[in-house]
Specification:
Layout lengths: L8 E5 L6 H12 L4 E7 L6 H8 L5 E5 L5 H19 L3 E4 L5 H11 L6 E5 L10 H18 L8 H26 L7 E2 L4 E2 L10 E4 L2 H7 L9 E3 L8 H7 L10 E4 L13 H24 L4 E4 L8 H13 L3 E4 L5 H6 L3 E4 L3 H9 L4 E4 L16 E4 L2 H5 L16 H14 L11 H6 L7 E3 L14 E7 L6 H9 L7 E7 L6 H7 L6 E4 L5 H11 L4 E4 L4 E3 L3 H10 L5 E9 L5 E4 L22 E3 H7 L10 H11 L4 E12 L3 H4 L1 H14 L3 H25 L1 H11 L3 E3 L2
Helix pairs in contact: 3-4, 3-6, 5-6, 9-10, 23-24, 24-25
Length: about 750
């Protein structure tokens, strides 16, 4: 009996949890029918009724706790260190979030973009009604509300102090979230797109950060175009709640009152401090009269029903709305006040009707269907008149509409949009088709295979003379060289003399040597499956050219001044066959310029050190699964010395590991590029470690190595290198004399 094929995985960010039932719940319900959904949940939110229902019904495979958004430092650390490992473990085909503006969303998308192949990065509208209001206007209104709240806590402060303090605090937070903390943890700042406290959009460039935006109507599209310049990435879909009867039943949320009640969701907030004297009381009476008339009219249309009155949690301290509540409770029979902390969605599930002004929940109720939904454009609420753009909502614009409420019709639905599960496969197919283009910081095999040969390229080898149906080799060995006439023969002999030679292809990449190296290559052309010689852009570029030519399941790189023991590749491949490791590494014999040598053992416990410095993962001994290059990219071309460290650290951060093969080894001659440019190589290593999230440890390690090397060179000059070497060997961990 064959096991069912594993389903692709989608990583879904559940934040913000207070809006989870508005859209995220229905997205997960739909996606869970075809994908394994892994849900990111702020700590403490695992008991949310919607999340419990999704787990119970098998629509979510697992939940992963992350720090609360209020824990800024912890959230930055989680995004920099834990998120890459999580992404590497679950290997999602898509990462879905409701926002891309905040630092955590950007960090998660950036980590996702580092995977190979990179998942589709999707932003969906969470369903709040105010998204069609210009975002900068919304920010200004929110900021004014916060400034007033801060001013109430500073009653003795001079005018303007609250505003100044709010702006200073916002500026500090802005720079911490986008510059200081990302630099400390990853070595790279985040590109800001929104400055909340300044109330402005900083940048509309989202290419390379977001692959697709999902929204539900033309109003949403226009709102998104204020935040992104990538119009082609915006897609209209039918909101998943539209056909969500089964999903709602699965919630099993207890009704917030009698079934069939009228749920009233006022969202109006008043800057009552700006009203002179008792003007706020007069305003409250006016608002109460309007609400009473509206609720009476709805009762007249639907019949006598209880009223559940629920204020938004942020309005509970508003004296205007407090007085409105008192007046309505005294005037209307069957009027029940619901605590503001109660979720509106659980009231709506059992409601007979829903009424509000611009409450975010009435849009949710309209999409859910099954009950009349009214929007009262009576209170001069910004954006209130625009609620008519949402299908299923009956607009009430004044006293005349209240008088003829029974004759009003809801806004009709527009043209049918594709369902989520109709659009998503197309988006994934398009994304995968475009995945051959380089993304992130690392070039890809496909990019190199598409490159046209350099006009000066010379090439040859025996591959073209062998049968086309010859099976792919188990191992590909790549030698790169430039002006390596003195050492190349020994390197070639060591590759041809190893035990796995019959199952190995040998590739040589030359950087247009001028010293007779090409004479050796032509003389020994039959020893290479393929060789080429052309100008290159450095060591990384040469590595990448060789890997793009390789066909073996495993890839080893042996430079032209190195040699390999006869049994090493056989043992390394066997170790990889017997494990799930991404690469194997061994011990290294280092030959000094004066002819002496020492052995440097590989470090099986390398994971303790790799975050701050290149541990003893000796590159001449590293044998990597070719799939690692296919998934996670090739060597970075902007690095001159430590490209091997960056690649192995990248694998480590993405959840991959290596296996040590003790006993056999490679032989490496000192005097290479990294040895001649020790300070530059160490500095480059420090930058890589800092960018990966350990700047403090990287700087400390760099300082130690610079001081050590400077001290040694000074002692070499004063007392001679032989005596210094003997003293140094006494304290050098992991070294022993070569027998």
């Amino acid at each position: 009996m064959t096991e069912p094929a594993a389903r692709p995985t989608i990583l879904f960010n559940a934040h913000p949890l207070h809006l989870f039932l508005a859209s995220a719940y229905f997205y997960c319900w739909e996606l869970g029918s075809r994908f394994d959904v892994v849900l990111l949940v702020p700590r403490g939110g695992e008991d949310h009724p919607g999340i419990r229902a999704l787990l119970d019904q098998g629509r979510v495979r697992e939940t992963v706790a992350m720090p609360s958004p209020r824990q800024s430092w912890a959230l930055h650390r989680w995004a920099a260190r834990t998120a890459p490992r999580l992404l590497a473990r679950v290997r999602p085909v898509a990462v879905v979030q409701s926002n891309f503006q905040y630092h955590f969303n950007k960090s998660l998308f950036r980590a996702a973009g580092a995977l190979r192949p990179a998942p589709l990065r999707i932003v969906y509208l969470s369903g709040v009604a105010q998204r069609h209001v210009p975002v900068e206007r919304v920010l200004r209104e929110v900021n004014e509300s916060h400034i007033i709240s801060l001013g109430r806590r500073l009653p003795l402060a001079p005018p303007g102090l609250a505003r100044a303090l709010y702006r200073v605090r916002g500026a500090v937070r802005y720079h911490l979230d986008h510059a200081v903390l990302p630099l400390l943890l990853t070595g790279r700042p985040l590109a800001p797109t929104l400055h909340e406290t300044a109330g402005r959009i900083v940048s509309r460039t989202t290419a390379g950060l977001v692959d697709a935006f999902l929204c539900y109507g033309e109003a949403d599209r226009q709102a998104l175009l204020e935040e992104t310049d990538d119009a082609a990435a915006i897609h209209l879909i039918e909101h998943p709640a539209t056909a969500a009867g089964q999903a709602v039943c699965a919630l099993a949320i207890p009704a917030g009152g009698e079934a069939g009640a009228i749920v009233a969701l006022p969202s109006r907030s008043y800057d009552y401090e700006r009203l002179d004297g008792d003007a706020w009381a007069t305003e409250a009476d006016r608002v109460a009269d309007l609400w009473a008339a509206a609720l009476d009219a709805i009762r007249a249309r639907l019949g006598a029903r209880p009223i559940l009155w629920k204020l938004h949690p942020g309005r509970s301290g508003d004296p205007v709305m407090a007085r409105v509540t008192q007046v309505l409770a005294a005037a209307l029979p069957g009027f029940t006040v619901i605590p503001p902390a109660r979720a509106a969605e659980d009231l709506i599930c059992a409601a007979g009707a829903v009424v509000g002004d611009t409450s975010t929940a009435i849009v949710w109720a309209a999409r859910l269907g099954g009950r009349p939904v009214f929007s009262l454009d009576l209170f001069d609420v910004p954006g209130g008149a625009e609620m008519e753009r949402y299908p299923g909502i009956t607009m009430v614009r004044g006293a005349a509409d209240l008088a003829r409420l029974a004759d009003l019709e809801p806004t009709p639905p527009g043209a049918r949009q594709p369902a989520l599960l109709e659009l998503l496969p197309r988006l994934l197919q398009q994304h995968q088709a475009g995945a051959t283009a380089p993304s992130g910081d690392w070039p890809t095999i496909a990019e190199y295979q598409r490159c046209s040969p350099h006009p000066a390229r010379l090439a040859g080898g025996s591959r073209t003379r062998r049968r086309a149906d010859r099976p792919a080799p188990r191992l590909s060995v790549i030698t790169i060289c430039r002006n390596a006439h003195a050492t190349l023969d020994a390197t070639i002999d060591s590759v041809l003399g190893q035990d796995l030679a019959a199952e190995t292809e040998y590739i040589l990449v030359d950087g247009q040597s001028q010293d007779g190296t090409l004479d050796i290559v032509r003389r020994r052309e039959g020893d290479f499956d393929q060789w080429l010689s052309e100008p290159d852009a450095g060591i990384s570029d040469a590595f990448n050219k060789g890997i793009a030519l390789a066909r073996g399941a495993y890839v080893a790189i042996l430079n032209a001044d190195d040699r390999i023991d006869p049994d090493y590749y056989r043992r390394a491949v066997a170790a990889l066959d017997a494990s799930d490791a991404a690469y194997a590494f061994g011990d290294l014999r280092v030959e000094r310029v004066d002819g002496t040598s020492f052995i440097q053992l590989g470090d099986p416990d390398y994971a303790r050190h790799i975050h701050r410095v290149m541990p003893r993962l000796h590159h001449p001994t590293v044998v990597v699964r070719r799939t690692m290059y296919e998934r996670y990219g090739l060597f970075r071309r902007d690095l001159r010395f430590a490209m091997d460290y960056e690649f192995l650290l990248r694998l480590h951060r993405l959840g991959q590991h290596g296996v040590h093969v003790p006993g056999s080894m490679a032989t490496h001659r000192q005097g290479g590029v990294s040895h001649r440019h020790y300070l530059a190589a160490t500095t480059e290593m420090r930058r890589i470690a800092s960018a990966a999230g350990a700047p403090g440890a990287a700087w400390a390690t760099w300082t130690y190595h610079v001081v050590k090397m400077s001290t040694r060179r000074l002692l070499d000059h004063l007392v001679g290198p032989r005596l210094v070497r003997r003293l140094w060997a006494l304290q050098k961990q992991g070294l022993k004399r070569d027998p």
